[in-house]
Amino acid sequence: MAQKAEPNALPNLEEVIMNNRLLFALPLAAVLAFPAAAQTTSSDQNAPAASQQTQSNSTDSNATGKAPLAPAPREGFWGRVNPFARKNYVKRQTEPIRDRVNELDELTSTNSKNIKDTDQRAQAGIKLASDKANEADQHAVEAGNKATAAQQSAQQVTARVQTVETVVGNIDQYKASNQTEIRFRPGQTVLSKNAKDALDTMASGVKGQRGYIIEVQGFSSGKGQTAITTSQKMAESVVRYLVLNHEIPVYRIYLVGMGNAPAPSTDENAKSKRISGGRVEI
């Protein structure tokens, strides 16, 4: 005969364990599902707000020419620090920062290149200015040397002009430095030994000199043209001897036959005397 089950019998041990697992699993699943749903919902809600904020700040510029990054808003239940964040969420949060870092790197590289180019152009300009200054200094030195040479040449020309003026001023200012008298017998025009010795002594004193002339005046006794011819022949004998024996240039000798002109006297009050025979004053 079958026995009737007791209504107040104790539950089985396996059923108790199963019920306890269900009680712990349901709250845990709810806790894990809530942050994910909150994260997705918050991201979808904040996307338009972030877009509007970016558009409103587009007028603000910085080094990259773009608006500065806005701080991330609080998202979901956990905020910025989300222990259950996924890779897409982290990538989406760090992508603007990575883009700005790349832009700053490019901007820094461009600025460095521009600074280098500017420095090179500045150095080239400084070098060009230095070369021009050195060239100007060389031109100035050359001009100074030429001016000094021109001044020296002018001084030399001035000295020469003064010398020429002195020579021209004294060209007809002659002074008697040596006088010699040669005697001839009446009717004779040949030089004696004493006459030649006197001429040798006089000619030796003019060798090597410049700017001198020799006056030869012949005097003869007699009258008229005969006396003039005789006096001129005696003077020619003296000139011939000086030119042939002492090589005195002819252009330095002036000859004149005075005939029977009175002999000049050193005393102004004394009367001039006529001579007998012939003589030549040199």
- CATH fold title of the domain at 181-281: 60s Ribosomal Protein L30, Chain: A
So what's the overall shape? rod-shaped
- Kindly provide the name of the CATH class of the domain at 181-281: Alpha Beta
Order of helices and strands: HHEHEHEE
The largest beta-sheet arranges its strands as 1-4-2-3
Strand-residue fraction?
Answer: 5-15%
Count of alpha and pi helical runs = 4
Instruction: Specify the structural class.
Output: alpha+beta
N/C terminus separation: 208 Å
CATH second-level architecture of the domain at 181-281: 2-Layer Sandwich
Q: How much helicity do the residues have?
A: 55-70%
Descriptive notes:
With 282 residues, the protein is of the alpha+beta class. Helices cover 57% and strands 7% of the residues. The chain is built from 4 helices and 4 strands. A 4-stranded mixed β-sheet has the order 1-4-2-3. α3 crosses α4.
Task: Summarize this entry quickly.
It is built from 4 helices and 4 strands.
Blueprint of the fold:
Blueprint: H1 13-56, H2 87-169, E1 181-184, H3 193-204, E2 214-220, H4 224-246, E3 253-257, E4 278-281
Parallel strand pairs: 2-3
Antiparallel strand pairs: 1-4, 2-4
Helix pairs in contact: 3-4
Please describe the structure with a list of short key phrases separated by commas or semicolons.
282 residues; alpha+beta; 60s Ribosomal Protein L30, Chain: A; four-stranded mixed β-sheet; 4 helices; 57% helix; rod-shaped
